[in-house]
Amino acid sequence: MRRFLAEAEGFRVIGEAGNGAQAAERIRRERPDVVFLDVQMPGMDGFAVIEELAGEMLPAVVFVTAHDEYAIRAFEVEAIDYLLKPFDRARLRQTLDRVRRQLGRDPGELAEKLRRLLAAGAGERRPLRRIAIRSGGRIQSLPVDEVHWFEAADNYLKIHTARAVPLIRETLAELERRLDPDVFIRIHRSAIVRIESIREVECMFHGDYEVVLSTGTRLPVGRKYRDRLLEALGKVES
Predict the structure, then answer these.
(1) How far apart are CA 221 and CA 117, in angstroms?
(2) What CA–CA distances, in Å, run from 238 to 197, 204, 208, 225, 230?
(3) What residue ranges in 93-180 does DSSP mark as E strands?
(4) Residue 69: is it exposed, middle or buried by C-beta count within 10 angstroms (0-12/13-18/19+)?
(5) pTM score of the predicted model
(6) Which is it for the CA torsion 118, 120, 123, 124, positive or negative?
(7) Strands, DSSP E only, in 6-146?
(8) Which of 6, 88, 208, 237 could form a disulfide with 204 if both were Cys (CB 3.0 to 4.6 A apart)?
(9) What is the pLDDT of residue 238?
(10) What parts of the chain have a pLDDT lower than 50?
């Protein structure tokens, strides 16, 4: 990719990243005009990087993938280009011509296309069933069915189960997109809980709410998530 881009007139590579978290950080810092994102990356995939930057001035995005399953159909619908690996110089030239046209468009139009692309891509995915836990040179497979709730801890996640609280390197935004929305719900910017683990919701002072889990754990409910939580529990406010 770097070699091909070095040959392209009018384009200059200003940075690279080895994973999704690095990509999001470099995009914020460098403010590039166009970004080539792999669909599958460690920690955060290409979709999660865009979600992480939601609300910010987004660059033109070209997704790179070795798989032609859900992604390509979504890309074609929204006219966001993709590169299917392996690709050659001719295919990249077509992509760069498309990027030049996109850069001349209204930034708001491009951001809206990316928002719809994320929704389309998420709709094609199967819900997460197992989580790989790396520890001491070993990898264990944790069934998602054993999880009561997930807690954000900087760029990591604490996975709260009845047996242990392992830590993985992933963001809550990426995890939320991979979970079954009929099983898990986000209740706070730092917490996603299993709906069936919720024992009750308590109304606190000043209109605040707290969730009480079957384990006895109490978690605050962010106001922006309250209505969705009540709807998921089948509760209707009077």
Answers:
(1) 29
(2) 25, 16, 16, 18, 12
(3) 130-135, 138-143, 147-153, 156-161, 167-168
(4) exposed
(5) 0.52
(6) negative
(7) 34-38, 60-65, 82-84, 130-135, 138-143
(8) 208
(9) 43
(10) 70, 77, 79, 238
pLDDT at site 43: 65
| Amino acid identity for residue 69 in this structure | E
Q: Show Cβ contacts of residue 3 under 8 Å, excluding neighbours closer than 6 positions.
A: none
Summarised one tens digit per residue, pLDDT across range 44-87 is: 777 778 777 765 667 788 888 776 654 555 565 454 677 777 88
Handedness of CA 82, 101, 88, 6 (dihedral sign): negative
| Residue owning tokens 């810092």 | 29
pLDDT digits (tens, 9 = 90+) for 200-210: 999 988 778 99
Q: What is the DSSP letter of 8?
A: S
pLDDT score, position 222: 93
Residues in the chain, total: 238
**Tokens 């881009």 found at:** 5
Contact 166, 150 (CB under 8 A): no
Is beta strand 191-194 parallel, antiparallel or unpaired with respect to 184-188? Answer: antiparallel
Which residue segments constitute the domains of the chain, with CATH numbers given? Answer: 2-123 (3.40.50.2300), 143-232 (2.40.50.1020)
